[in-house]
Amino acid sequence: MRVDVFDPAMCCSTGVCGPDLDPQLVQFAADAKWLSEQGVTVERHNLGQEPGAFMSNALVRRTLQAEGVSCLPLGVLEGEVIFRGGYPARAELVRMLAMTDKVA
Amino acid sequence: MLHVVEHPTRYLFFTGKGGTGKTSLATATAVALADRGRRVLLVSTDPASNLGQVLECEVSDVIVAVPSVPGLSTVNIDPEAAASAYRERVVGPVRGALPDDAVQQIVEQLSGACTTEIASFDEFTKLLTDDAIAATYDHIVFDTAPTGHTLRLLQLPAAWSSFIDDNPDGASCLGPMSGLGAQREQYGAAVRSLSDAALTTLVLVARPEPSALEEASRTSAELSALHIDSQRLIINGVFEARDPSDTLAAALQRRGEDAMRDMPASLASLPQERQALRAHNLVGVASLRSLVADDTHMFDSVASGRIVSEALPESVSSFSTRLPTPAAA
Known about the structure:
- By secondary structure, chain A is an alpha+beta fold.
- Helix content of chain A is about 35%, strand content about 20%.
- Chain A has helices at about 25-35, 50-55, 60-65, 90-95; strands at about 1-5, 40-45, 75, 80-85.
- Chain A starts with a strand and ends in an 8-residue tail after the last helix.
- Helices cover about 50% and strands about 10% of the residues of chain B.
- Chain B is an alpha/beta fold.
- Chains A and B meet through helix 1, helix 2 and helix 3 of A and helix 5 of B.
């Protein structure tokens, strides 16, 4: 299972960079790590660093063109958008990924 | 005589907070080396550089000779121009293909201090690695130095793969570096030059104040962690009261002495020189030459003391007795 997360332009995905610490970002970074420990491949793409990834993925490009950057962050699971415009909590991720056997 | 003038390495870096006098000291060193017949390039990356003012000549982003000092050339790297060129390399290919607000967001993200810092280091590694520059100059004096933060970023490309493998969730500020991976080789060479004591001397410049010395200590530790070990400390603006009955002057002197006595041990262990407080700004080549010609510890305390007294209202002299003694670090 592979989740691609298309993040807004930011310094880096840890959330601990820069003058404003973003607790949601820090939490999601931890959740993403947890997911990868459960065997889920999580790839993060930062608009500010690899805009090419946003262009080459047709689904992302279309969504971005239709909705603008407010659709970011955008979570894509095997060709389908599973979340947009905000980071889900771990419990939601578990539900979205139908990881029924995992305890969040 | 400053040690770096008598024993200059190929690269000399002066680092310190604004107002510590690092530009004056770097410039005086560069002038002194040129006066000794060396070919010297003086480099500034400070956006608010007053190099032109200090040298009384035009300084620009191309290398120019200083008319009044044979053998000396200068260049000022403009960090903003460097950053803007870098932004264009990233944004250019996606402009038109992604919506405008997305392009705008990328531009904003690449408009931070981080990008500016990296982009100017990009320019300055060229000076460290360019063969033509190496053939033209005996010494390159930088009136600035990369911060530990910049250097950590620069080291990452070299260890890029293993770092990411080992720290997938670590606080890895790879941020603005991602577009610069191609220059890995150049950065590697630059970092090697910086950590080679036979090539590079790093001069920390600080005022005799607790916070300034703390800051210098942090910088020193960051650079040591990156194996940039050839460090020296210059404490600039040391005040000595000549008239012991002048309580304000005596208190100022004591405060400086306390700060220097209580400086962090790691900083105190560095080779150290002290420059006396001067009554006048160092502007012009003649005053720069006098700075280097002076014995480091000599200064005209009568003149300085009088100017300090005159600059403050009379009521301040009573305040001087209430000056707090800095707490021991």
